[in-house]
Design brief:
The chain contains nine helices and six strands, in the order βαααααβαβαβαββα. By secondary structure, the protein is α/β, with parallel strands linked by helices. A six-stranded parallel β-sheet has the order 3-2-1-4-5-6, with helices on both faces. Helix 1 crosses helix 4 and helix 3 packs across helix 4.
Length: about 220
């Protein structure tokens, strides 16, 4: 049975600017004289991992920072922002999910973010998209190595009992596309507002709106 594997949080709802806002609020709480502009943030999105971004930025600016603590604050703020925002699923997401359910196609949410971030997002999107939507949910506790390593996708495939050739991934950033490719899973790049200029050359296609029929074709290997 084919499987459709949504990647990061922003494949379901575009939260990229909320993420940046949360980083800046966390910096203020930790008395850091840092502000990441949108251009700054876009330049950092070629790699995954918020704590790593903080550590790298601190090192580049000669600041001694507890990156893990700052990132924990950022995550708390981000979860609050998600709850307060009027988040809506991205174009084509609900239709793709509904068609998959109707056709008996398995659905996965394959992230390496925290379970708390996932819960906040899915609570905000319910009932259109919820934890019950997915046959498997992968978070940072599921695997030892984050994206762009293949571990998250390999874990999801094993949990679903599926082969890579019977699945398609949907990712919004370069690291996610690389992760899917490393697991031999075909990937549709579905960039968010801050990753649209990324290098998605290894994706099978780059789209602004999900086409449920096309996604199912790729998952079934008939495209």
């Amino acid at each position: 049975m084919p499987a459709i594997l949504f990647g990061s949080i922003s494949t379901l709802a575009d939260t990229s600017e909320l993420q940046r806002q949360a980083f800046n609020q966390a910096f203020a709480e930790h008395d850091l004289d840092w502000t990441w502009t949108r251009d700054d943030y876009i330049g950092m999105l070629g790699s995954n991992g918020g704590a790593d971004r903080i550590a790298q930025y601190a090192s580049a600016h000669g600041d001694d920072v507890d990156a893990a603590a700052v990132h924990a604050t950022k995550s708390r703020i981000f979860q609050t922002l998600i709850g307060d925002a009027d988040l809506q699923p991205r174009q084509g997401v609900v239709e793709t999910v509904q068609a998959a359910k109707s056709d008996g196609v398995k659905l996965g949410f394959v992230t390496t973010t925290s379970r708390e971030n996932i819960t906040a997002l899915l609570d905000a999107l319910a009932p259109a998209i919820s934890a019950d939507t997915f046959d498997v949910i992968v978070d940072s506790d599921s695997v030892e190595t984050p994206k762009p390593d293949a571990a998250a996708y390999r874990f999801a495939l094993a949990e679903l009992g599926e082969q890579a050739g019977h699945a398609v991934a949907i990712e919004d950033n370069e690291g996610g596309v690389a992760s899917a490719g490393a697991a031999d899973v075909r990937c549709i790049a579905f960039p968010n507002e801050n990753t649209a200029e990324g290098d998605f050359g290894s994706a099978v296609e780059v789209v602004e709106v999900l086409d449920s029929a096309r996604v199912r074709e790729l998952a079934a290997g008939t495209a």
